[in-house]
């Protein structure tokens, strides 16, 4: 089944404790993105990647890191999480520049205490 | 940079009522427009999309949307809503130069009552 998977789905952590949210897609998509969803703000892009080893900042990159060592994986790293990073995070993938349509993962609900 | 406005934040309808959710975007060039739906506790799913051609596009579950270029609008419609349509609806846009980035509106929460 073609899908985007994220782990963990739920995470409660404390300020300053490094964490990684994994994202994997099995559709051989070139593009992958991370978004955060906050009430009243919709979804905002954090980082995106156009291919292996090619990443760039989105609208709200502060406090996050990403890497793209393999085409299928695009982990989101919070080196020192803070309470304002409490949010619902979505990973998405897209086949190529020409297709535009993005497919979303199930989301990761993160709480930073 | 492009932006998207959804003016209806929370809509409450009775079953069988007609639905229209507003979406306006700001960008002067060529756009690609989307409506996504997020059912409670679930991830975003694509309802419909517009790239070019017929400005009236039909999506899944009886939804349709009309692209009106002169009004920079892409409103979502459904003639008769069902209780199962209760969800949050997001309008989104990409442009030719930012194809890897979806710019979302703030969403409209639709509540359908029995």
Radius of gyration of chain B: 14 Å
Cα-based radius of gyration of chain A, to the nearest Å: 13 Å
Structural class of chain B, by secondary structure, is mainly beta
What can be said about the biggest beta sheet of chain A? 7 strands, mixed
Low-confidence runs of chain A (pLDDT<50, min 5 residues)?
none
CA-CA gap between termini of chain A: 36 Å
Tell me, what's the shape of chain A? globular
| Oligomeric assembly | heterodimer
Largest interface: A-B, 25 and 25 residues
Outline the fold blueprint:
The complex is a heterodimer of chains A (113) and B (114).
Chain A: E1 4-7, E2 10-13, E3 19-25, E4 31-38, E5 42-51, E6 54-57, E7 65-66, E8 76-78, E9 87-94, E10 103-104, E11 108-112
Chain B: E1 3-5, E2 10-14, E3 19-21, E4 24-26, E5 31-38, E6 45-50, E7 56-58, E8 64-68, E9 73-78, E10 87-95, E11 103-104, E12 108-113
Parallel strand pairs in B: 2-12
Antiparallel strand pairs in B: 1-4, 3-9, 5-6, 5-10, 7-8, 8-9, 10-11, 10-12
What does it look like?
The complex is a heterodimer of chains A (113) and B (114). Chain A is mostly beta strands and 113 residues long. Chain A has strands at residues 4-7, 10-13, 19-25, 31-38, 42-51, 54-57, 65-66, 76-78, 87-94, 103-104, 108-112. In chain A, strands 2, 4, 5, 6, 9, 10 and 11 form a 7-stranded mixed sheet that branches. The radius of gyration of chain A is 13 Å and the shape is globular. Chain B has strands spanning 3-5, 10-14, 19-21, 24-26, 31-38, 45-50, 56-58, 64-68, 73-78, 87-95, 103-104, 108-113. In chain B, strands 2, 5, 6, 10, 11 and 12 form a 6-stranded mixed sheet that branches. Chain B has a 4-stranded antiparallel sheet with strand order 3-9-8-7, with no helix packed on it.
């Amino acid at each position: 089944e073609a899908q985007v998977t994220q782990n963990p789905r739920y995470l409660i952590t404390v300020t300053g404790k490094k964490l990684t949210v994994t994202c994997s897609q099995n559709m051989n998509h070139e593009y992958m993105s991370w978004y955060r969803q906050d009430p009243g703000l919709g979804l905002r892009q954090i980082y995106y990647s156009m291919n292996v080893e090619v990443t760039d900042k989105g609208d709200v990159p502060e406090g996050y890191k990403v890497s793209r060592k393999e085409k299928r994986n695009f982990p989101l790293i919070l080196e020192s999480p803070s309470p304002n990073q409490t949010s619902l995070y979505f990973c998405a993938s897209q086949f190529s520049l020409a297709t535009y349509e993005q497919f979303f993962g199930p989301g990761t609900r993160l709480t930073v205490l | 940079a492009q932006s998207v406005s959804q003016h209806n934040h929370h809509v409450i309808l009775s079953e069988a009522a007609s639905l229209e959710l507003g979406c306006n975007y700001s960008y002067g060039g060529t756009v690609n427009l989307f409506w996504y739906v997020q059912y409670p506790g679930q991830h975003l799913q694509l309802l419909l999309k517009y790239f070019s051609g017929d400005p009236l596009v039909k999506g899944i579950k009886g939804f349709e949307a009309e692209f009106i270029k002169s009004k920079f609008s892409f409103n979502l419609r459904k003639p008769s809503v069902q209780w199962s349509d209760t969800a949050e609806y997001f309008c989104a846009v990409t442009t030719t130069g930012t194809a890897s980035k979806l710019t979302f509106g703030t969403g409209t929460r639709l509540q359908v009552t029995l």
